[in-house]
Design a protein that fits this description.
Layout (H helix, E strand, L loop, with lengths): L8 E2 L5 E2 L3 E3 L15 H12 L4 E3 L3 E2 L11 E2 L6 H11 L5 E7 L14 E2 L17 E2 L2 H21 L3 E6 L4 H6 L14 H4 L1 H14 L5 E6 L10 H14 L3 E5 L15 H6 L4 H8 L6 E4 L5 H9 L5 E4 L1 H5 L3 H6 L16 H4 L4 H14 L10 H12 L12
Parallel strand pairs: 3-4, 3-14, 4-7, 5-6, 5-7, 7-10, 8-9, 10-11, 11-12, 12-13, 13-14
Antiparallel strand pairs: 1-2
Helix pairs in contact: 1-2, 1-14, 2-3, 3-6, 14-15
Pfam families: Oxidored_FMN (PF00724)
Protein name: NADH:flavin oxidoreductase/NADH oxidase family protein
Organism: Chengkuizengella axinellae
C-alpha cells in the first residue's frame, strides 16, 4: 500500500515533494493596510511547515492592488514587497516544505468594500441576492487583458526571487480566469472569447508568461474547476479538454476543485453518497480526467482519514491529497498521522440550529477563518468552540455581510 504520509513525489522538473499532503488555499486575510504580509501570516505558515505538510499553497495573493478579492489581501506587484515575502518564504519552507504562492485576480468577484470598480470578460453582473455586494463589472479592454497577463508573470518572478518554491495560478471558484473560461460570464466576440479555445486563451497566456519569467525548472500549478455547477457555465467536458491543453503546455500540477461564489458544491448541506463513502468531493471527475491526462493531480475536499487518503492514492486517479479545513484545526495533522497518534478526524458540520442561517452554508467558513486567526496569534485552535458564539462574534465585527463575505474554497 502506498503511504500518503511517507512517499515523496518527484515532479518532471526534478523537484521533490516529501509527501502527498497538500495544504489547499484558504482565505487568511492577514495582510496589513499596505497589502503586505504580517507577523501573523509568518506564524501561521511556520506552524504548517513544522506540522509536516509536504506542499503548502498560500491563500490568494493578488497581482494588482486595484483588484482585491477582499480587504487585507496580500498584493505582489512591485519589488518593495520582497523583504516581507522573504520572511514569509523562510518560515513556510522550514522542514523541507514546498511553499507555492497562489496568484489571483478576482475579476467581478470582488466585494464593493474592497474595490472602486470591477472588471470581467464581459459586462455581466451577478444575479440574485448576491449581486448587491458586488459592483456591476465593466468589460475588460484588450490592453487590460494583456496587462493582467504580464502582472501574473511579474508576481511569479517576485515569488521566485523571494524564496517561494513554486506558484499556483487560481483558475477556479469564479475568479477572473474562471470567468474567462465560462460561457456564462465570457460572451466576448474577439480572440479572448467564443469557443473553449478562445475562452481558455487567457489562462494559457498567463501560464506562458509565468514560464517565460521564471524558467523551465520552477513549478507552476493550476487550480481548475471540474465544473461551475451553473446553467450555461463551464462544463466537465470543457474542464477535461482544458486540462489536456495545460498538460501539453507543461503545467507541473493540477489541483481539482469546483463551483463559484454563486454555486459551491462544498457549501451544500447534503452530499452525494459517493462523496461520503470515498471522502472526496471530486474523485469521480478525477477518475475521468486520469483517462485523458497523466499530469500530477490533486483532489481537495472531504478527506478525513488515512485510509480514505491511501485508497484515493492507490486508485491512481490522483497523486496528492488536498486538505484545508482539517489543517485549520490541526496544523500538525500530517505529523499526527505519521506517528499514528490518530488515523482519522471527525469534522461535523457547524450549525447554529437557526435554519435560515445554517442554510446559507457560509457560517462554517467564518468559523474556520476564526480558527486561522487564532493560529496566527500563536494561540491553540478551539475545535469545540460553539458555532453560535462564532456567529455572534462575526456579526459584531462584520454585520450582515458575514453571510456572503467568506470564500467558498476553504
Amino acid at each position: 500500500m502506498e503511504s500518503v504520509i511517507s512517499n515523496n513525489y518527484i515532479l518532471k522538473n526534478g523537484v521533490s515533494i516529501k509527501n502527498r499532503i497538500l495544504k489547499s488555499a484558504m482565505s487568511e486575510a492577514l495582510g496589513n493596510h499596505q497589502y503586505l504580509p504580517t507577523e501573523g501570516l509568518y506564524r501561521l505558515y511556520e506552524q504548517w511547515a513544522d506540522g509536516g505538510t509536504g506542499l503548502l499553497i498560500t491563500g490568494n495573493v493578488m497581482i494588482d492592488r486595484k483588484a482585491l478579492g477582499e480587504p487585507r489581501n496580500v498584493v505582489v506587484e512591485d519589488d518593495k514587497v520582497l523583504p516581507f515575502l522573504e520572511k514569509w518564504a523562510e518560515k513556510g519552507t522550514k522542514n523541507n516544505t514546498q511553499l507555492w504562492m497562489q496568484l489571483n485576480h478576482p475579476g467581478k468577484q470582488a466585494f464593493k468594500g474592497a474595490v472602486k470598480e470591477s472588471v470581467a470578460p464581459s459586462a455581466i453582473p451577478f444575479e440574485g441576492k448576491i449581486s448587491r455586494f458586488f459592483h456591476k463589472p465593466r468589460e475588460m479592454k484588450k490592453e487590460e487583458i494583456v496587462d493582467s497577463i504580464k502582472r501574473f508573470g511579474y508576481s511569479a518572478l517576485l515569488a521566485k526571487k523571494s524564496g517561494f518554491t513554486g506558484v499556483q495560478i487560481h483558475g477556479a471558484h469564479g475568479y477572473l480566469i474562471s470567468q474567462f473560461l465560462s460561457p456564462r460570464h465570457n460572451q466576448r466576440k474577439d480572440e479572448w472569447g467564443g469557443d473553449i479555445n478562445g475562452r481558455m486563451k487567457f489562462l494559457i497566456e498567463i501560464y506562458r508568461e509565468i514560464r517565460k519569467q521564471t524558467g523551465e525548472s520552477f513549478p507552476i500549478s493550476v487550480k481548475l474547476n471540474s465544473a461551475d455547477f451553473m446553467k450555461a457555465g463551464f462544463t466537465e467536458d470543457e474542464s477535461i479538454y482544458t486540462a489536456l491543453m495545460l498538460e501539453k503546455e507543461g503545467v507541473d500540477l493540477l489541483e481539482i476543485s469546483g463551483g463559484t461564489y454563486e454555486s459551491s458544491p462544498m457549501a451544500k448541506m447534503n452530499q452525494k453518497s459517493s462523496t461520503k463513502i470515498r471522502e472526496a468531493y471530486f474523485m469521480d471527475y478525477a477518475e475521468k480526467l486520469r483517462q485523458t491526462v497523466k499530469i500530477p493531480l490533486c483532489v481537495t475536499g472531504g478527506f478525513r482519514s488515512v485510509t480514505g487518503m491511501e485508497n484515493a492514492l492507490n486508485s491512481n486517479a490522483m497523486d496528492f491529497v488536498g486538505l484545508a479545513r482539517p489543517l485549520a484545526i490541526y496544523p500538525d495533522l500530517p505529523n499526527l498521522f505519521a506517528n499514528q497518534s490518530i488515523n482519522e478526524i471527525r469534522i461535523d458540520q457547524r450549525k447554529t440550529g437557526i435554519r435560515f442561517i445554517d442554510e446559507l452554508g457560509m457560517l462554517e467558513i467564518t468559523w474556520y477563518a476564526q480558527q486561522l486567526r487564532r493560529l496566527a496569534k500563536g494561540r491553540k485552535t478551539r475545535p469545540q468552540y460553539p458555532v453560535i458564539f462564532s456567529f455572534l462574534q462575526a456579526l459584531a465585527k462584520n454585520g450582515k455581510e458575514i453571510f456572503i463575505k467568506q470564500r467558498s474554497g476553504i
